[in-house]
Amino acid sequence: MKLIIAIIQPYKLEEVKEELYKAEVNLITVSEVLGHGRQKGVTEVYRGAKETGNLLRKIRLEIAVNDNYVEPTIKAIVKGAKTGETGDGKIFVLDLKECVRIRTEEKGAMAIG
Amino acid sequence: MVNTGDTAWVLISSALVLLMTPGLAFFYGGMVRRKNMLSVLMQCFIVMCVLSLQWVLYGYSLSFAPMKGFWGGFAWLGLRGVGLEPYADYAGTIPHQAFMIFQAMFAIITPALIIGAFAERMKFSAFLIFTLLWATFVYDPVCHWVWGIGGWMRSLGALDFAGGTVVHINAGIAALVTALVIGRRKNLDHNAPAPHNLPFVVLGTGLLWFGWFGFNAGSALAANGLAVNAFVVTNTAAAAAGLSWAFIEWIHNGKPTIFGTVSGVVAGLVAITPAAGYVSVIPAIIIGLSVSVFCFLAVSFIKPKFGYDDSLDAFGVHCVGGIWGALATGLFASKAVNPAGADGLFFGNPKQFLIQLFAVLVTVVYAFVVTFVIYKLVDLFVGVRVTEKEEMMGLDLTQHRERAYTVLE
Fold this sequence. Notes:
By secondary structure, chain A is α+β, with helices and mostly antiparallel strands. Chain A has helices at residues 13-22, 70-81, 109-112, and strands at residues 2-8, 29-35, 44-46, 49-51, 56-65, 89-95. Chain A is elongated, with a radius of gyration of 17 Å. In chain B, helix 1 runs antiparallel to helix 2 (37-64), helix 7 packs antiparallel against helix 8 (225-253) and helix 10 (281-306) runs antiparallel to helix 11 (314-332). Chain B is mainly alpha-helical. Chain B has 14 helices and no strands. The radius of gyration of chain B is 20 Å and the shape is globular. Chains A and B meet through helix 1, strand 2 and strand 3 of A and helix 13 of B.
């Protein structure tokens, strides 16, 4: 089992979701986060004062999958989120020790799907 | 002779009608996704700026200068000759400029209503040009036909107390045209966007309801019995329509919603607008109860069936409600309420209904064609729609370099 964490551009969320559905990955958790990578981002202007270098809004996806779903999930995220410009984000793949479905108390691979 | 009571009421009414545009900004703003909140507020406020200037420079002259023809002409450019004495043909007891500034508020809110159709996807530059052209070539002529001295609908006897034809049908048709030609928002089919802040929609509706007393009761242009009649029927129709929409949802969807209730209130206010000075309270209840049926059908069945993306239902509420109001005026108008008006179908004068129908049809056709031409011209010169990436990022950041809400702090 793996836990896939992806940080993507907020405006790419719809496309990534589309690609994940196509890859039959339906169970995801989405949160809004702030982050700082190489990208400088859009400069915001408030009453003439420019603000740059702030933390940028990103979307964080968490997806727990069985091993055979790791590659399809990564491919789907890349396909949906990639523009080729800085700021597209990153994908982290972590080993997942355990997974419990609260409703049934099932564990492991059974609980993930 | 200037009457102090009348003048005070019309000035207060003008302020009330102005407040409707910020009200509309929150009504619409709450419905869009949060990445587009500021763009809607900005569009509404910039309309207040642009149309306020347009109106005193030439809009008032085109709309109200006395002349038989397409427009009122240029006699009152820059308010030349529009002074502080009454102009009896429009309002005999208030300064001419009081009438002018009251009308200015209508000229402001009408183009702002159209925003609901193309929200979340129009370039700001294109919006500015479109709005100015639309006000000049659609609002000003139609306003002249219906309310101006020498206007042909006015001479024909078409009744429009506070702007059902001029404001709501006009803007509602423009909304349909722009929604059709600008196209649907991206990713709509899999992911219908939810309103980002329903409390703002409710707040906006509250401001609209409040401001509408100036809109309708102020249209009596005097602090008199007619103003009171308009005030009472306006409140009654809004209440009936809000209740009606809630019950329709309850029956049809299982639960009444606040979003539906406030939509009904706005539909009721729209429908009573042309009738406010001509009908009594029982017809107002009928108009209010029934308008929610028509508007509910328009936004829940007709819109999905035909697939046009009238984002915030500017057509479904304002045009459908406006047409029902204009026709209902031809049914329920009574000289017992307003001797200067006319009797409607149910009071023995079927001809009035036909006059109302004719005025509606002409307005619909004119607004449809000219809005289409203006849209295409603006599209040709500056391009109307934002790029796909800008649409996904939101108009707040891409058009204004601001955002409405922070994540931390």
